[in-house]
Design a protein that fits this description.
By secondary structure, the chain is an alpha+beta fold. Helix content is about 15%, strand content about 30%. The strands form three sheets. It has a four-stranded antiparallel β-sheet with strand order 2-3-4-8, with no helix packed on it. It has a three-stranded antiparallel β-sheet with strand order 1-10-9, with no helix packed on it.
Length: about 140
């Protein structure tokens, strides 16, 4: 039987390649973007009812079809935001008891009153969606553009 001997150069080269593989893996994206188009039939049109006002808890919010997060920070004070985090597109959670909406993917945080960025990797706040409450229904409204 023949013996195989490894040279110092071969060992160093192998260790260096393993280290390089680790560095490249660490630099890679840890997850693919989660942005997905809204499914057909989701409430995008002005005048579309998003949710009954009574179904949105005070101090909380509800994610409705079309990636819309409708919140009621204080009684009668409704706001709506595009629920996709501006960082990677993951769905932001409804506000917690402190009035903070948090992205579960990378922990970006947003203010319930206006969607502004509080902390985390997002570079801007949530996009505000124009709404109105008519006859107990939260509806999208046309925006000036």
């Amino acid at each position: 039987m023949t013996e195989h001997t490894l040279s110092r150069r071969a060992v160093v080269r192998g260790v260096a390649m393993c280290g390089l593989a680790g560095v490249l893996a660490a630099c890679a994206e840890d997850e693919p973007p989660t942005q997905t188009p809204s499914p057909p039939g989701t409430p995008k049109e002005p005048g579309t009812v998003l949710i009954a006002a009574a179904d949105v808890p005070v101090g909380g919010g509800v994610l409705v079809p079309g990636s819309v997060l409708v919140v009621q920070a204080t009684p009668g004070n409704f706001k709506a935001f595009d629920a996709r985090c501006p960082h990677k597109g993951a769905m932001v959670a409804a506000p917690d008891t402190t009035g903070t909406m948090t992205c579960p993917a990378h922990k970006a945080q947003f203010q319930v009153n206006d969607g502004s960025r509080l902390s985390g990797p997002a570079d801007k706040g949530l996009t505000v969606i124009a709404i109105e409450v008519v006859d107990g229904q939260v509806r999208r409204v046309a925006t000036q553009g």
